[in-house]
């Protein structure tokens, strides 16, 4: 799409909004809008005015103002290729390598990869990883995406690429001659640029883009308060989330003088308009040209630029904007400050220089730009001999995350000595802006670079760089520790550099520098960013199986190609319907309060606002007593829905929502934490309890007893497609069509029915596909569907409701945080004789699924272990937080962490490896669970032994121990965990399913079933079933959508049984039809399928059939504590190895091996994708995903900037998955097993590998083992757990003396 914006474009409109609203292209993802997920990535092409070359770069469309694209060409995924014309090789390969599940991240991945290939036809692996570093995926685990991308890379013979899941030789070649050319019209514009000023006026904002530097300076003098906007990566998010507003914006994009780069003998001057990506290239080029001693500062900047944000942000953000913004987390400003950079500023009055020092960074008027000045360029001097510059940063994860603390450090030593001549240290993340430790540095000048100086420096730095206990962002003690840890790393780096320099000094010099212990050397190395390698193993189909039979083969996702081209239609892709309104929800800002009044008068006066919907407008029931749809008299959490605005556009509705005034009266008590809930006896449901044997008696007979606590934080679903619904009222009989992103359309249908007080048969819910669910779209979509339906009924017009990411995370809740207490009794040989566990879940303010989650948690707590004397108790706490709900694993990932923590505690006390304790206590023979359900553990033991073997566990364990002996500041850890995961619901009625199969007279087949496509490939598997049963090619079978009008009374697609039960229903329908066709086939055995269908029609044989599966028998009697609640078990084991940095808390995942029991896989490509995706999601739960709440109950982490799901750099370096060859035959479709949830818990192997590494540090340092376990194992937790001389130095605050920034809720 060639960019020459219309003059009437609103400057507040982003490229993404422009493309969607004008329906120029159907780029779909627009709920995040802060540039953090990469889903809306597009390619921008521009002619560089200095080099005259065409530059292609990726950007996030949600941040880029449409006005900034004058003269640019924009390519979206739809422009790259389509299924109707020609697929681009990138699209083909990402689909056929199974790199797409729910779709929502796929267009962004395609465009990042496509842009890379436009710049590098055969990229290196490093370039591929960098290109995808700004793209998040919640489904796949990234491995298959990289597998597709690697097919374009240089051949690397040492990489183990497994191509069993796809045939690489079938891919069409990449032909650069077939790519889109840069539009000639834009080329002519670029060659003869207009010098006139362009002005775009919107309702609130005016955008001015001058063509010359002179005009820009005149405009800046006229509008001194107007900011210069380049990439919009700072101002854009601030305007969206913090409501910042600027009436005039000046764009310097067309000023070539701001992009000039000049090299001199003493330094480098870089134009302020250069993007950070361009700065990175400029610095890399200079480093390659100059001797190392001159490029110390440049290398430090390059190090920071590699991990600063993602490539899309680096392509947009300018050097000048980054410096002028002076964010406290800036990665570059600390390095530029210590590197003595100078700012060249210009105005109509002329030019002048400002040192980029602590005064400028603090914003002192005397050291800052004047309002009429702009930053023209930045001068960065060369470093010199005996000068050393380093940069450091630590964030929640390695890439695309804001730093918790960063630093720039520079020291100049007197030539030939280790005496400090000049020292400069700056930190980010420890104050409102970058902090310079000027006083400390001055006091250290003249000191020798030795251990005594180190001790004194740490003391001085901690005094000067002080951080109050209540500091914004929290993590105060962790940040204090990083202040000195970073300096220690710098100390070692300088010593190492001195050691190298000493080789070139005369022997007669006689100066000896302090030696670095070999054990300390690993502290100097940062963890590299590497992509996963590995092997995926699965059982091949029987050689006698018909080639046309797709069951058991790695068939590509049914919608894979449409995912890759952007043609797959989702709920919010339905074009605007006639008279449609947009709904925005208004939520409570108080945690527990009475609603005194709601004043919407000001909102209704705004243009475009049609009405306000409150609880009083609900004609039927307002939810249930336990779960209200909308607050009526009382709010129970921050984020509780109070009312909703409906307006002509989303912008108008959001503006009006901000004008609604709600008056509250605060109520007591206000409960956020589990401990407070226990204190106030605040629970949502009765206690659930299971017991076997005699626990108290067993405790009296054991050798040892250990008691401990386990705290597991919550988890956000972070489905890429946020909650959304479109309700269209029909003209008669109160009928409604509802298009909704849900796992349970029948529940939406029933809730709307009761809310509107109309029969269910008037309401039809449609689900084409869902952009990820993970349990978060089981119950919550019914609330949004009902509210939108009330709005539609009240106004008589269609209503669309789309939550943005912030509101979705605030309102919907997630995985239940858990607090567990255990008491375990065992013999000295590690045999566990008694185990007593009490669990408390933080359920939030309403019941939702909390009682069910508690039940499932208790039922699954024993995991793989046979312990004769057990007592499990669990309760869900009522707190004033948003209600937590279903989430993949449904209590198992939290609860079983307690069980496995008991195992590691027993191992520590017995002085035995945890794997030995696991083996000793595992089920060995046919037995009964704590709830008296019989099962055979044969497959469990096979998975365990296979995992030990495939991972070479014992030999690698010895290598880990050897590594730990040789390294003090880096430690490795290994863990292997077994799993017995019960599949399904604990009730027979929840396993029923139906399907409707039509055969048309041309022989084509339409299948409809009760399952919903969430990205897990259920529709693909149903086509495989129909193809096998009807003995026709998959290409003859089609699935349109899931609809309550076609298959009624469906159940949620959840609990890992979606394919099981719906597959049985499809099978039943196909078998009914085939039975009807039997006489015809018998009469004409040589005929074709089409012949038989034509004959059947002629003979009046029905070609439509309903298939039905009555469900697996499942029940649980909680009074007796026994039952057969689950139809079958999935077994598995995972082994992980990690390396931690004890000084920073960072960790690197070295290897993960998973063995999973799938019996007979319906589709190994899809099943392996489910295993990998759930493992990585579980890994996120246990390592990086951390929800932070204020003391007032406000969720801080409401987007990808604050909440870090695993990114591509977080995947294990080696990632192997094996599907265990079939053994037992479960009562499922073709003896397959559901794998949607089970892999989640196996991610805990990474957690236990980290704690194993921490335990190694404890043993070396003589620290007593702590039996309080906290998840996630964030860098903060790891660093503070690895106590050492530096953590002992830091000041500690009395928690009673200040109000913390955040509170722990588990």
UniProtKB/TrEMBL annotation:
<dbReference type="Pfam" id="PF02738">
    <property type="entry name" value="MoCoBD_1"/>
</dbReference>
<feature type="binding site">
    <location>
        <position position="40"/>
    </location>
    <ligand>
        <name>[2Fe-2S] cluster 1</name>
    </ligand>
</feature>
<dbReference type="GO" id="GO:0005506">
    <property type="term" value="F:iron ion binding"/>
</dbReference>
<dbReference type="InterPro" id="IPR000674">
    <property type="entry name" value="Ald_Oxase/Xan_DH_a/b"/>
</dbReference>
<feature type="domain" description="FAD-binding PCMH-type">
    <location>
        <begin position="200"/>
        <end position="385"/>
    </location>
</feature>
<feature type="binding site">
    <location>
        <position position="375"/>
    </location>
    <ligand>
        <name>FAD</name>
    </ligand>
</feature>
<keyword id="KW-0285">Flavoprotein</keyword>
<dbReference type="InterPro" id="IPR002888">
    <property type="entry name" value="2Fe-2S-bd"/>
</dbReference>
<dbReference type="GO" id="GO:0051537">
    <property type="term" value="F:2 iron, 2 sulfur cluster binding"/>
</dbReference>
<dbReference type="Pfam" id="PF03450">
    <property type="entry name" value="CO_deh_flav_C"/>
</dbReference>
<comment type="subunit">
    <text>Homodimer.</text>
</comment>
<dbReference type="InterPro" id="IPR016169">
    <property type="entry name" value="FAD-bd_PCMH_sub2"/>
</dbReference>
<keyword id="KW-0001">2Fe-2S</keyword>
<keyword id="KW-0274">FAD</keyword>
<dbReference type="Pfam" id="PF00941">
    <property type="entry name" value="FAD_binding_5"/>
</dbReference>
<dbReference type="InterPro" id="IPR008274">
    <property type="entry name" value="AldOxase/xan_DH_MoCoBD1"/>
</dbReference>
<dbReference type="InterPro" id="IPR012675">
    <property type="entry name" value="Beta-grasp_dom_sf"/>
</dbReference>
<dbReference type="InterPro" id="IPR036683">
    <property type="entry name" value="CO_DH_flav_C_dom_sf"/>
</dbReference>
<protein>
    <recommendedName>
        <fullName>FAD-binding PCMH-type domain-containing protein</fullName>
    </recommendedName>
</protein>
<feature type="binding site">
    <location>
        <position position="774"/>
    </location>
    <ligand>
        <name>Mo-molybdopterin</name>
    </ligand>
</feature>
<feature type="binding site">
    <location>
        <position position="393"/>
    </location>
    <ligand>
        <name>FAD</name>
    </ligand>
</feature>
<feature type="binding site">
    <location>
        <position position="331"/>
    </location>
    <ligand>
        <name>FAD</name>
    </ligand>
</feature>
<dbReference type="Pfam" id="PF01799">
    <property type="entry name" value="Fer2_2"/>
</dbReference>
<dbReference type="Pfam" id="PF20256">
    <property type="entry name" value="MoCoBD_2"/>
</dbReference>
<dbReference type="InterPro" id="IPR016167">
    <property type="entry name" value="FAD-bd_PCMH_sub1"/>
</dbReference>
<feature type="binding site">
    <location>
        <position position="105"/>
    </location>
    <ligand>
        <name>[2Fe-2S] cluster 2</name>
    </ligand>
</feature>
<feature type="binding site">
    <location>
        <position position="139"/>
    </location>
    <ligand>
        <name>[2Fe-2S] cluster 2</name>
    </ligand>
</feature>
<dbReference type="InterPro" id="IPR001041">
    <property type="entry name" value="2Fe-2S_ferredoxin-type"/>
</dbReference>
<dbReference type="GO" id="GO:0016491">
    <property type="term" value="F:oxidoreductase activity"/>
</dbReference>
<dbReference type="InterPro" id="IPR016166">
    <property type="entry name" value="FAD-bd_PCMH"/>
</dbReference>
<feature type="binding site">
    <location>
        <position position="37"/>
    </location>
    <ligand>
        <name>[2Fe-2S] cluster 1</name>
    </ligand>
</feature>
<feature type="binding site">
    <location>
        <position position="743"/>
    </location>
    <ligand>
        <name>Mo-molybdopterin</name>
    </ligand>
</feature>
<comment type="similarity">
    <text>Belongs to the xanthine dehydrogenase family.</text>
</comment>
<feature type="binding site">
    <location>
        <position position="102"/>
    </location>
    <ligand>
        <name>[2Fe-2S] cluster 2</name>
    </ligand>
</feature>
<feature type="binding site">
    <location>
        <position position="890"/>
    </location>
    <ligand>
        <name>substrate</name>
    </ligand>
</feature>
<keyword id="KW-0408">Iron</keyword>
<feature type="binding site">
    <location>
        <position position="137"/>
    </location>
    <ligand>
        <name>[2Fe-2S] cluster 2</name>
    </ligand>
</feature>
<keyword id="KW-0479">Metal-binding</keyword>
<dbReference type="InterPro" id="IPR046867">
    <property type="entry name" value="AldOxase/xan_DH_MoCoBD2"/>
</dbReference>
<feature type="binding site">
    <location>
        <position position="62"/>
    </location>
    <ligand>
        <name>[2Fe-2S] cluster 1</name>
    </ligand>
</feature>
<dbReference type="InterPro" id="IPR016208">
    <property type="entry name" value="Ald_Oxase/xanthine_DH-like"/>
</dbReference>
<feature type="active site" description="Proton acceptor">
    <location>
        <position position="1237"/>
    </location>
</feature>
């Amino acid at each position: 799409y060639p960019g020459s914006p219309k003059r009437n474009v609103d400057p507040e409109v982003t490229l993404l909004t422009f493309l969607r609203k004008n329906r120029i292209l159907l780029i779909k993802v627009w709920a995040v809008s802060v540039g953090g997920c990469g889903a809306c990535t597009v390619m921008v092409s521009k002619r560089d005015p200095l080099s005259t070359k065409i530059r292609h770069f990726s950007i996030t469309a949600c941040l880029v103002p449409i006005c900034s694209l004058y003269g640019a060409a924009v390519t979206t995924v739809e422009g790259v290729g389509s299924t109707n014309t020609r697929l681009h090789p990138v699209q083909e390969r990402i689909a056929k390598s199974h790199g797409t599940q729910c779709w929502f991240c796929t267009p962004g991945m395609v465009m990042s990869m496509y842009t890379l290939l436009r710049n590098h036809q055969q990229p290196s692996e490093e370039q591929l990883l960098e290109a995808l570093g700004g793209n998040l995926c919640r489904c796949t685990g990234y491995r298959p995406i990289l597998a597709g991308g690697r097919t374009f890379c240089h051949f690397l013979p040492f990489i183990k690429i497994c191509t069993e899941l796809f045939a690489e030789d079938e891919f069409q070649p990449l032909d650069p001659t077939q790519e889109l050319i840069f539009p000639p019209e834009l080329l002519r514009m670029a060659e003869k640029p207009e010098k006139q000023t362009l002005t775009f006026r919107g309702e609130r904002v005016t955008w001015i883009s001058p063509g010359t530097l002179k005009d820009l300076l005149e405009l800046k003098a006229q509008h001194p308060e107007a900011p210069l906007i380049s990439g919009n990566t700072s101002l854009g998010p601030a305007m969206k989330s913090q409501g910042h507003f600027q009436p005039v914006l000046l764009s310097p994009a067309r000023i070539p003088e701001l992009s000039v780069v000049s090299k001199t003998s003493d330094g480098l001057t870089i134009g302020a308009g250069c993007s950070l990506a361009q700065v990175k290239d400029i610095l890399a080029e200079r480093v390659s040209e100059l001797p190392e001693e001159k490029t110390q500062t440049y290398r430090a900047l390059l190090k920071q630029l590699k991990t600063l944000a993602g490539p899309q942000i680096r392509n947009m953000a300018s050097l000048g904007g980054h410096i002028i913004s002076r964010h406290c987390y800036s990665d570059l400003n600390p390095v530029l400050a210590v590197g003595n950079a100078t700012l060249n500023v210009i105005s109509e009055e002329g030019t002048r220089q400002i040192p980029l020092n602590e005064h400028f960074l603090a914003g002192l008027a005397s050291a800052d730009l004047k309002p009429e000045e702009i930053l023209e360029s930045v001068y960065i001097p060369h470093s010199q001999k005996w000068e050393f510059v380093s940069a450091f940063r630590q964030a929640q994860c390695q890439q695309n995350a804001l730093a918790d603390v960063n630093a720039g450090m520079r020291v100049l030593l007197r030539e030939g000595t280790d005496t400090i001549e000049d020292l400069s240290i700056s930190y980010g993340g420890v104050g409102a802006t970058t902090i310079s430790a000027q006083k400390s540095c001055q006091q250290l000048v003249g000191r020798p670079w030795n251990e005594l100086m180190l001790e004194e420096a740490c003391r001085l730095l901690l005094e000067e760089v002080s951080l109050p206990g209540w500091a914004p962002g929290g993590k105060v003690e962790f940040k204090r520790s990083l202040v000195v840890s970073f300096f220690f790393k710098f100390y070692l780096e300088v010593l190492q550099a001195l050691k190298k320099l000493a080789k070139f000094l005369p022997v007669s010099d006689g100066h000896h520098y302090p030696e670095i212990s070999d054990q300390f050397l690993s502290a100097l190395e940062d963890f590299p960013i590497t992509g996963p390698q590995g092997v995926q193993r699965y059982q091949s189909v029987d050689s006698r199986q018909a080639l046309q039979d797709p069951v058991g083969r790695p068939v590509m996702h049914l919608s894979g190609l449409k995912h890759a081209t952007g043609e797959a239609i989702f709920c919010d892709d339905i074009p605007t319907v006639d008279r449609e309104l947009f709904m925005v929800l208004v939520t409570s800002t108080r945690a527990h309060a009475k609603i005194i009044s709601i004043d919407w008068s000001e909102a209704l006066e705004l243009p475009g606002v049609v009405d306000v919907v409150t609880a009083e407008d609900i004609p039927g029931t307002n939810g249930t007593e336990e779960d209200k749809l909308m607050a009526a008299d009382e709010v129970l959490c921050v984020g509780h829905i109070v009312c909703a605005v409906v307006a002509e556009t989303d912008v108008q509705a959001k503006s009006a929502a901000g004008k609604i005034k709600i008056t509250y009266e605060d109520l007591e008590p206000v409960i956020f934490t589990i401990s407070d809930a226990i204190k106030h006896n605040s629970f949502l449901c009765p206690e659930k309890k299971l017991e076997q044997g005699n626990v108290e008696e067993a405790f009296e007979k054991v050798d040892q007893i250990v008691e401990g606590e386990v705290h597991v934080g919550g988890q956000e679903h972070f489905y890429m497609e946020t909650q959304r619904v479109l309700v269209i009222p029909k003209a008669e009989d109160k009928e409604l069509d509802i298009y909704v992103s849900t796992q349970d359309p029948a529940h939406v249908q029933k809730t709307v029915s009761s809310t509107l007080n109309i029969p269910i048969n008037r309401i039809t819910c449609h689900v084409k596909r869902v952009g990820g669910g993970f349990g978060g779209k089981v119950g919550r979509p019914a609330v949004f569907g009902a509210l939108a339906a009330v709005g539609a009924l009240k106004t008589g017009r269609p209503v669309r409701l789309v939550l943005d990411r912030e509101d979705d995370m605030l309102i919907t809740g997630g995985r239940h945080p858990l607090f567990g207490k255990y008491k375990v009794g065992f013999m000295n040989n590690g045999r566990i004789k008694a185990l007593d566990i009490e669990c408390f879940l933080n359920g939030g303010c309403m019941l939702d699924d909390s009682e069910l989650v508690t039940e499932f948690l208790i039922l699954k707590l024993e995991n793989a272990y046979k312990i004769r004397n057990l007592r499990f108790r669990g309760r869900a706490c009522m707190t004033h937080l948003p209600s937590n709900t279903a989430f993949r694993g449904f209590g198992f990932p939290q609860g079983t962490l307690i069980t496995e923590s008991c195992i590691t505690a027993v191992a520590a006390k017995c002085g035995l490896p945890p794997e030995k304790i696991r083996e000793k206590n595992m089920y060995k023979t046919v037995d009964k669970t704590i709830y008296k359900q019989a099962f055979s553990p044969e497959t469990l033991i096979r998975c365990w032994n296979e995992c030990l073997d495939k991972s070479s566990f014992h030999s690698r364990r010895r290598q880990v121990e050897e590594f730990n002996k040789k390294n003090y500041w880096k430690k490795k850890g290994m863990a292997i965990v077994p799993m017995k995961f019960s599949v399904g619901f604990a009730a027979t009625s929840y396993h029923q399913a139906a399907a409707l199969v039509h055969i048309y007279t041309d022989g084509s087949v339409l299948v409809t079933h009760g399952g919903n496509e969430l990205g897990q490939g259920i529709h693909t598997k149903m086509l495989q079933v129909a193809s096998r049963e009807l003995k026709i090619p998959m290409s003859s079978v089609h699935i349109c959508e899931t609809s309550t009008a076609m298959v009624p009374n469906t159940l949620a697609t959840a609990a890992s049984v979606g394919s099981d039960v719906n597959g049985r229903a499809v099978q039943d329908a196909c078998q009914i039809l085939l039975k009807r066709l039997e006489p015809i086939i018998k009469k004409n055995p040589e005929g074709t399928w089409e012949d038989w269908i034509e004959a059947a029609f002629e003979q009046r044989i029905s070609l439509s059939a309903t298939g039905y599966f009555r469900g697996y028998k499942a029940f649980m009697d909680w009074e007796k504590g026994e039952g057969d609640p689950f139809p079958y078990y999935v077994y598995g084991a995972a082994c992980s190895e990690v390396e931690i940095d004890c000084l920073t808390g960072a960790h690197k995942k070295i290897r993960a091996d998973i063995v999973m029991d799938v019996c007979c896989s319906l589709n190994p490509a899809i099943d392996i994708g489910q295993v990998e995706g759930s493992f990585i999601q579980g890994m996120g739960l246990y390592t990086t995903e951390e929800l932070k709440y204020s003391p007032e109950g406000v969720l801080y982490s409401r987007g990808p900037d604050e909440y870090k799901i695993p990114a591509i750099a977080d995947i294990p370096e080696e990632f192997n998955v094996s599907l265990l060859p079939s053994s037992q035959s479960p009562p499922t479709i073709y003896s397959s097993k559901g794998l949607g949830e089970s892999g989640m818990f196996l991610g805990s192997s990474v957690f236990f590998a980290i704690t194993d590494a921490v335990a190694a540090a404890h043993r070396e340092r003589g620290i007593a083992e702590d039996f309080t376990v906290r998840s996630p194992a964030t860098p903060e937790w790891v660093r503070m757990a690895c106590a050492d001389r530096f953590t002992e130095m830091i000041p500690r605050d009395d928690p009673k003396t200040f109000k913390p920034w955040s509170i722990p809720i588990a």
